[in-house]
């Protein structure tokens, strides 16, 4: 139907055009933000204070003409501040926390690596739309693996030891005394290593089916000085080895699995009788309408490009998606044989769920 024959609300049209210009500007700046992250431009601005384009280029070993244009785009986006009187650029402390400080609890720049991987995967995902066969996690650009680790590590570092583990019944005491822990779907091992650093009396093993991620995780454990108590092995969620684990953890990965019910059954088989399964998942309400917000927007996009295709590429292919919500996750856990399930705590980005035999 041609829009020329439809009545048009000019106010609504102009508002939507304004929204689209903003969205297109954000999308167009995504590769620039990746460049700023990888070349250390944000970090240099944060460390050296107000700089000219010439000074920033010298600080970072980059070409001034490119840096000048990059800075203009960043200032137009509100990502850096511009002093027109002195032709200087600066990054405010609040901007630096998000873009330059990897130790910050709100650091997000690493996510742009994942966004790059999503764009690179567009032809594969478009074909998956036609065939329904999905796209495996291992089929993506390596930027996805490092970007995912950097994005989620921010939340894990800020909340895992301080809030999430204490919200579980009796788990911290076990970890302090010395527990055995399995981290399923560990990726590059950020969550496993953070726990290992906090609880040196316990022993941790991370499992992931992706060989390259496991190799990187073992390297990261050595770099962090925890290789004596933290190790990583290649295994799937349905057949990872071991038994009598005091704690099994699954961080932001259950929804990616083709057979999450099968994974739940395996967790139940490997838990000690008084053990705990900690399930960390992207925050979502149960009703779609309640997820139509900025966080849901981000997660539904990632779910379309990454999470749902990953699940559909595997056996069973349940396709939970990154916005499954607590009720659907409860159903998966109970179908796997668990009898106790509760929400332990939550953040704007994550649900932290506790399951017991």
Textual characterization of the structure:
The chain is of the alpha/beta class and 357 residues long. It has 14 helices and nine strands. It has two domains: 9-99, Arc Repressor Mutant, subunit A; 111-356, Rossmann fold (3-Layer(aba) Sandwich), CATH 3.40.50. The strands form two sheets. The chain has a seven-stranded mixed beta sheet with strand order 5-4-3-6-7-9-8, with helices on both faces. It has a two-stranded antiparallel sheet with strand order 1-2. Strand 8 (340-346) and strand 9 form a beta hairpin.
Summarize the structure.
The protein is α/β, with parallel strands linked by helices and 357 residues long. Helix content is 50%, strand content 15%.
Share of β-strand residues: 15-25%
**Would you tell me which CATH topology of the largest domain applies?**
Rossmann fold
CATH superfamily of the largest domain: Vaccinia Virus protein VP39
Rounded average pLDDT: 96
- One letter per element, helices H and strands E, the order comes to HHHHEEHHHHHEHEHEEHEHHEE
Structural category is: alpha/beta
Through-space gap between termini? 56 Å
- Portion in helices: 40-55%
Largest sheet: 7 strands, mixed
Instruction: Note poorly predicted spans.
Output: none
Strand order of the largest sheet: 5-4-3-6-7-9-8
Please report the first level of CATH classification, the CATH class of the largest domain.
Alpha Beta
What's the CATH architecture of the largest domain? 3-Layer(aba) Sandwich
Indicate the overall shape.
globular
> Helix count, per DSSP?
14
Radius of gyration using CA atoms only? 22 Å
The total beta strand count reads: 9
Question: How many structural domains can be distinguished in the coordinates?
Answer: 2
State the assembly state of the protein chains.
single chain
